[in-house]
């Protein structure tokens, strides 16, 4: 017994042509077309461009500037701010920048 909302795989013979290849759907190519012609890593666009240099600047900020700011912060500022909030900003900035720099549009 098969229902249309079972969420599992349902074989549809009309989705394949006579050679056994999946037909392209109306909204674009089939999901597994990328396996037919994969891009070699050497041919991919992997240059160290503006995104890489921004990531390097954020790393320097997170590992050099921020710890110096924590050490040199005036002692009259609260302990909570100096040791919890101040390190949180470069950590979040580094995480967001790393994800942004490594994803390609």
Automatic annotation (TrEMBL):
The keyword Transmembrane helix applies. InterPro entries: DUF7977 (IPR058283). Residues 1-43 are annotated as: Disordered. This is Uncharacterized protein. It comes from the Archaea. The keyword Transmembrane applies. The chain crosses the membrane at residues 53-73, 79-101. It holds the Pfam family DUF7977. Keywords: Membrane, Transmembrane, Transmembrane helix.
